[in-house]
Amino acid sequence: MKQAENYKKNAGKTAKQTFPAASSAPSQGGGTSIGSIKPQAQTQTSANPYQQKAMETASSGELTLLLYNGCIKFIDKAEKAMDEKQIADKNNFIKRAQDIIRELMITLKTDSEVGQNMYSLYDFIHSRLVDANIRNDKEALHEARQFVVEFRDNWKELMKLDRQQRFGEGGQA
Questions:
Q1: Which residues pair with 108 in a beta bridge?
Q2: Which of 2, 12, 42, 60 has a CA between 20 and 30 Å from the CA of residue 51?
Q3: For this UniProt entry, which segments traverse the membrane (predicted)?
């Protein structure tokens, strides 16, 4: 547990982070208590205005889903770059996937056994991404992707169940 707290305190001090700091405020409306993410609005002139507005208005659950999808996207791009022997691109894509996993780790509520177990799994995913990057290990990349996809799918199901409980039938994630 102390390792998680130390990681949270030191994150961002030693490594350049792609994502802004996030608060771990509880989700509104009785959402899940596993963790919540609410990144600060980014002001990028190169960002798609539609995507920018979607991120600014998304709930913490939707932002978590966006992070999972982004991580999968970067892992897929890293695999393609690995196949094409584009080492610099592979490195950049894997580093971006690692940034997302670190963001999920930092914002995770670790005051329960579930949160602590998720933290351990995120740490494992991160280490597999590091292995994939250092060793050009496709198997490690696939393993990391498999875990992220499973987290994403479970998160979508949790969001769906939460919506059904709060609003009745018909909630789609």
A1: 35
A2: 12
A3: none
Place of tokens 């996937």: 97
Every domain of the chain and the residues it spans = 2-167
Task: Give the Cα separation of 75 and 71 in Å (integer).
Answer: 6
DSSP codes, 113-164: HHHHHHHHHHHHHHHHHHHHHHHT-HHHHHHHHHHHHHHHHHHHHHHHHHHH
Range among 40-49, 54-63, 111-120 rated most confident: 111-120
pLDDT for the residue numbered 29 = 37
Residue 60: C-alpha distances to residues 22, 132, 135 (Å): 10, 30, 35
Task: List pLDDT tens digits, range 103-112.
Answer: 999 999 999 9
Domain over 2-167 is classified CATH 1.10.510.10: no
Tallying the residues shown for the chain, one arrives at 173
Residue 138 neighbours by CB distance under 10 Å: 13
First to last CA, the chain: 32
Q: How many whole angstroms separate alpha carbon 104 and alpha carbon 90?
A: 21
- CA 21 to chain CA centroid, nearest Å: 13
Residue whose token pair is 């994502």: 19
Residue 14: predicted pLDDT? 42
